[in-house]
Design brief:
alpha+beta; four-stranded mixed beta sheet; 5 helices; globular
Amino acid sequence: MGHDHEGQRVSRRRLIAGVSSLGLGSLLAACGQDAPAVTTSTGASVSPSATTTKDLTALFADANTCTLTATTTQGPYYFDADKIRSDIREDRKGTRLRLAVKVQDSESCKPLGNAVVEIWHCDAAGLYSGAESQSTGGGGRPGGTPPTGAPPNGGPPTGAPTGESGANDLTPTDDKRYLRGAQVTNSEGTVEFTTIWPGWYRGRTVHVHAMVHFSNARVLTTQVMFDEALNTKVFTRSPYAAHTGRDTFNDGDTIYKDSMLLKMTEEDDGYLGVIVFSADSDKDGK
């Protein structure tokens, strides 16, 4: 299945199991009244979420510039989880993270409303939902078979240019869907997720994967990272402290760029991270 077809499938998500199972009740309750809706393949209407609060305006202003956001590998553990929701934690324990993303056009710098933003990341133990059996190592290919040249400890393949192999969509091997979700941007181009601080796995620094779909196409696949001082602070706590031996930090990660760092603010029960994505909405390379 080509990327454009996959983009269409995600931006016109199927309402296959009722509103409650997809979390659409909360989404629709928070919808902006002035933004266009996304029409699903069943004819239902999913409006952009307007959950982002005014206190983020100043943070977004300094979060990034209007420069095309760096594209990265999607990694081996992406699939369309059919979960339109803002709270993606499910039963995963960890430090609360509120993640706010503003999507804008990389040429005009104008907000991109009615875009679909997906995020996915590992839990405190380094596991990905839908791929728990494959993600016990780090950076390997789905299916449990290490790539050619991979060290025996399950780390990334020797000499791998990105630190993660795998560009094809994953066929899930379990029915878990934690720490995966999508939201539709409002008229200001913003979405907000509630999740936990990601854990780590061998060969990669701490990160969250993100993908933006616009006009039935994938227009950005990227990742966001965290300040190492905060990673260290969070990882002294439960449940992160039980996972020891971290081997890769921002300065040694092959994907990390300074522009991928979230702008962080400490909150009472966790952290708020904000970032601006400048996406190539017309796919002309600019």
